[in-house]
Fold each of these.
Amino acid sequence: MQRRSSNRDFSAYNVAQQARPVRPLARRAAELAAECSRTDGPATAVELGCGIGVEARFLAESGFTVHTVDRDASVERPMAALSAQLPIHHTSVDLAQLRELPPADLLPYGLEILELTEEERDGHSFEGPKHWHTFRVIARRP
């Protein structure tokens, strides 16, 4: 059985994620957001549990201002480097301690649901076998 996320060291996992492609969820969210494009400046996205910033980089390069949140200290330096190059603003905090989110146009975690996919399967994680039960949500502010 895996340890609780709050008790795990994600540094090796985050380093291993650097070379992976952008997840389809981020690509689809950016597509849907483009359909609802704004005229008063760049759209804002929030990514919770951003890890090494693969999706944050993609969203920023796609024209979003991105607010990222992750509690793992191993992502602070890479996220600071991304923030120096792109419109990314990182906060290091445990999600359980987060009391509010910045205003956002793209928040793939709630609000008006545009797309919802549920998946349950046995597979692997960075630490070995794992049962996955995931929800992929793309939403927007109504």
Amino acid sequence: MAVAAPPRSAARTHRAVPRRPVAAAPAAVLALIAAGALGVTALWWKDTASVAGAAGWLTNAGRLTGLLAGYAAPVLILLMARLPPLEREVGADRLARWHAFGGRWMVSMVTVHVLTITWGYALTNDRGWSPRAWTSCSTTPR
């Protein structure tokens, strides 16, 4: 049994091409993430008084790294949220790599935050690092 081919005029019908939604380019996504980090840093800078001494520098470094780690957490969630424009234009594999890199970066920021805050508070109170760490762990949160 032979199947008849459709007439030539039927094969040339024009169909509307579906419009793709606005998609994010990888560079634009990275620029947006960096702009958010700069915004967090700018807010910290605006609210920080003059810093003097090692205790002030360490404490403020701890505050900034804590803020940046807090900013990184929702960014990492959004990277793996499978948002269609991101997944389509950036790609799930690239988003997963960014998520892995960002996760390591966030853990590093949390580690630096804990160490510098503890060290800065220890210098502020004229106590050693170990007693300050013990006090922070045993009484915080109140």
